[in-house]
Amino acid sequence: MTARLEVLAGVVLGALVVALTLAFGDKALLDVLMRLAIFGLLALSLNILVGYTGLVSFGHAMFFGLGAYSFGLLMQSGAVSIPSAALITLVVACIWGGVVGTFCIRLDDIYFSFLTLAFQMLLYSIIIGWVSLTGGDQGLMGGIPRPPFLGINLAEPRQLFVLIVVVFVVCVLAIRQIVQSPFGFALRMIRDNAERARFLGLPVQRYKLIAFVLSGFFGSVSGILMSLYVSGAYPNFAFWSMSGDAIFMIILGGLTVFLGPLVGAAVFLLLNDNITRLTEHHGIVMGVVLLAIVLGMRKGFLDVLDEWWQARASRAEARAGGDRQ
Amino acid sequence: MNPEALLACLTTPACIVTQVSAGMIIGMLIFLVASGVTLIFGVLKVVNFTHGSFYMLGVYFALTAYGLTGSYAVSLLAGAIGVGLFGVVFERFFMSKVYNADVLMQLLVCYAFILILDDVVKTVWGGDFLKMGMPEEFALPPIKVWDGFVPPFYAFLTVFAVLIAVLVAALLGLTRFGKIVRAAAVNRQMVSVLGINTSLVYALIFGLGSVLAGLAGALAAPVRSAVPGMGFDILIESFIVTVIGGMGSMGGAFIAAIGIGLIRSFGTIGFPLATEGVMFAIMAIVLLIKPTGLFGRRAA
Amino acid sequence: MTARLAITGLMKRFGGVVATDNVTLDFAPGSLTAIIGPNGAGKTTFFNLITGKLKPDGGEIRLDGVDISGQTQSEIVRRGIGRAFQVASIFPRFTVEDALTAAVLTHRQQTSSMLRRFPLPDAASRAREIMALVGLERVGKTPSRYLSHGDQKLLDIALALALEPKVLLLDEPTAGMGPEERWQMIERVQRLWSEVGMTLVFIEHDMDIVFKIAQTIRVLRYGKVLAEGTPDEIRSNEAVIEAYLGTSLEEPA
Questions:
Q1: Measured distance CA(C168)–CA(C182) in Å, rounded
Q2: Are residues C46 and C169 in the same domain?
Q3: In the predicted model, what is the mean pLDDT of residues A207-218?
């Protein structure tokens, strides 16, 4: 699909969802869709690293938490409007991503995962410890003011819903463009064989860092949306289990197919809500589901389909005279 | 921030003794967990992210055993053996299935078990803080050192942990088993061809690493409150220690663990809010200057 | 004629072992050279030194007169020394065409764009040229991991070609192949060399292949140059026969 077609499809689908929901949906559907957009964006942004660059970050929630807290605090200060608070937050997230990323990409494989996790726990402990600023384990108290801007009033749920969908669509299209660009394919080269990519002359470390910052950028966008949605920010946004959930979503949906993480987020939220409703043993059930997927399929649902499709296509090519032996 | 208090402590022998002994037990607990992670990684090339949860299990096993028997010796054994057996089962039935898969799959198996174990512990022991209290064996007057006092259990914990470290080092360095393990770490296939059951070796190493975590848990039980999810902090700290000390270097981990323990202990006086920050800053500096850690060997 | 690649007094030690011992060799522009020698003779080390994977302990490596020893791998690649690996080093999840397009983009330093779409038409057509050159167009849409062993080796070579190297180093291009596949491979390599007109150096164990296609042969042993010359000269070189090749050369190839 070309870039133009994708933009068209994204806009049409987004408009359709918004129109249908506003026309027929109730408050519950609005909530479900907003959460799906927020967590879908979180998972998609993480997949820039996990699925496309081959870097398994276990600390992605740091951007989620950073986005939510930074935005929330700026709004609570009362000094800035929503757009400028969002802008400042994104700049902060990029700087944090740049600094933390510089350290993390020095290590490979599991050590990268561990180091991202460690930096996330650093942020978490700052949030918990700096009570006077962040409200500690109570979270940002008193709600986040949402003053109108440019004629948009986000205190009104339907307007908030439209904004979240619009931001979501724009971000998804942007991520799609990035992973389909020459840069995105350079990231795939690093994922597949970093040593060979380096030998072809690719500045591997620099590209990893850029991917890290980009992933953090979109992750913090989802954090901003989250703080708008719940009108607050809570320490669990930056807790390790949030990072774990994001990875969980990716593996549920699949990491090789672009929209896999979004599908995964949908399945995850469905599972999560129903399990919470049905049983107290949330952790046990989620853990067993995860084990079943990892040990049973070893990849996500869409990955299985994609693999099957590719294998079929290459067999077809082989039949068409590819294999001479 | 309270530099005056820190200075005051550093000029008072009694305070130094108290803080050093507190720092030593923090450091030794981190070291035991870290050495388990390092041992498993060194041979099996997988990082056991559940090691913090194993530590937690050790605490709870020890609590229950102490409640049943009233003997701390038994609860040490329960922690060590219980977690060791659990580790072997975990390795055989789950971790060994993803040795050849990528890091993501290994991490997810561990994550699943962290979720499950936290929930299981909550179901069995409840979600509230539990305390063992000081075992009767150690209800003794404190030991006077210099001008300060050291609780006898602190001294026991420190000496015991060092002893365990020496034992493990001897096991790996001097015995035939150690020879096999070191060979398997370098070339599993070759060892396998020589007729040694490497799966058994792997399970034993995983079990040994788990014993270390279980022991750490049992040693922590008298001085820490037990709560589901308590394993995570020590997992992070043990990782920081391995990075600073150098991956695969037990000696490095030992020294770094003591360092981190002392920072935590003195930090609570001088910079209570910044202790985490200082730990991370040290790790960051080490990574910048020497990415392989202070005592790490450069990869070929 | 001045050498394209001139190596003078190259040294490399690993601990006490001298892996490359005062090696001095010239490679003329457009030449086709085989490097042979028993296992452990230091052939792969020699390649690793030229490509910057290992840092030499002494000596010079001059490419068109410029000393490149001590430069990083990516600098050396950019200067025009390409390499294919003993075990094919490819991008498993890329299709052949995408892998080559990405390699061409990397070579042209066009990978930084996030606003354009992969594949850029220029790079894609260059990729197809390379595919045609090495004979991979029949599997262009196949993910690399599904390729046969031989095709993976070909792709590895093709990736190196994407960098438009002046000198191409092939580390055992026929390793792990059956006899028939070997000859196909080596014919391709030879055709490639004659069509592209670059300087080609390859390590090979199959003496039939070496003596059939190489213009010059260099024999390494214990990290030293034991002999060099045309296949006929090597065939009759006493030192080579005695030290390494034994009597097997007396038999007709």
A1: 19
A2: yes
A3: 97
Range of the domain at B129: 27-231
Does C178 share its domain with C247?
A: yes
Inter-chain touch B103–A130, beta carbons under 8 Å: no
Which chain C residues are closer than 8 Å to A202 by Cβ? 74, 106, 111
Number of domains in chain A: 1
Collapsing DSSP to helix, strand or coil, C61 comes out as strand
Say yes or no: C235 and C250 in one domain. Answer: yes
Residues in A closer than 8 angstroms to C135, CB to CB, are: none
Decide if A276 is inside a domain: no
pTM score, two decimals?
Answer: 0.86
Distance between CA atoms of C13 and B60, rounded to whole angstroms? 55
First-to-final CA distance of chain A: 35
Q: Which domain range does residue A101 map to?
A: 3-239
Instruction: Give chain B positions within 8 Å (CB) of A121.
Output: 232-233, 236, 276
Chain C residues close to A314, C-beta within 8 Å:
139, 141-143, 146
Question: What is the number of structural domains in chain C?
Answer: 2
Domain that holds residue C124: 89-164
- The DSSP string of A180-203 is HSHHHHHHHHHHHHHHHHHHTT--
Contact between C143 and C93 under an 8 Å Cβ cutoff? The reply is yes
> How far is residue B278 from each of residues A76, A123, B11, B256, measured CA to CA in Å?
29, 13, 22, 13
CB contact under 8 Å between C139 and A310, yes or no, is no
Q: Based on the fold, state whether residues C70 and C185 are members of the same structural domain.
A: yes
Cβ-proximal residues to B15 (8 Å cutoff; 6+ apart), any chain: B8, B9, B148, B269
Which residue in the set A114, A119, A287 is minimally distant from B115, CB to CB? A287
CB distance B115–A286 less than 8 Å?
yes
Is the torsion defined by CA of C134, C138, C142, C147 positive or negative? negative
More confident residue, A295 or A306: A295
Last residue within a domain, chosen from C108, C135, C164: C164
Q: What is the ipTM of this complex?
A: 0.84
**In chain A, which residues have their Cβ closer than 8 Å to the Cβ of B276?**
121-122, 125-126, 129
Distance CA A64, CA A243 (A): 9
Q: Nearest to residue C160, comparing CAs of C202, C121, C118?
A: C202
CATH of the domain at C8: 3.40.50.300
Tell me if A184 and C114 make a contact (CB, 8 A cut-off). yes
Interchain contact A108–B (C-beta under 8 A) = no
Reading chain B (300 residues) residue by residue, the pLDDT tens digits are 688 888 888 888 888 999 999 999 999 999 999 999 888 888 888 888 899 999 999 999 999 999 999 899 999 999 999 999 999 999 999 998 888 887 888 888 999 999 999 999 999 999 899 998 888 888 888 888 888 888 999 999 999 999 999 999 899 888 888 888 888 888 888 888 788 888 898 999 999 999 999 999 999 999 999 999 899 889 989 988 988 888 778 888 899 999 999 999 998 888 877 787 788 888 878 877 887 788 876 543
In this structure, the answer to whether residues C100 and C74 fall within a common structural domain is no
Q: What is the pLDDT of residue B99?
A: 85
> In degrees rounded to 5, what are phi and psi of residue C221?
-150, 135
Establish if B37 touches chain A: CB-CB under 8 angstroms.
Answer: no
Asked whether the beta carbons of residue A181 and residue C106 sit closer than 8 angstroms, the reply is no
Residue A237, pLDDT > 90, answer yes
A107 has a chain B CB within 8 A of its CB: yes
Residues C66-75: tens digit of each pLDDT: 888 888 888 8
Residue A7 belongs to a domain? yes
Long-range contacts of C180-187 (CB under 8 A, 24+ apart): C181/A325, C181/C149, C181/C150, C182/C206, C182/C209, C183/C209, C184/C150, C185/C150, C185/C153, C185/C154, C186/C212, C186/C213
Last residue of a domain, one of C101, C136, C164: C164
Band (pLDDT 50/70/90 cuts) for residue A320 is: low
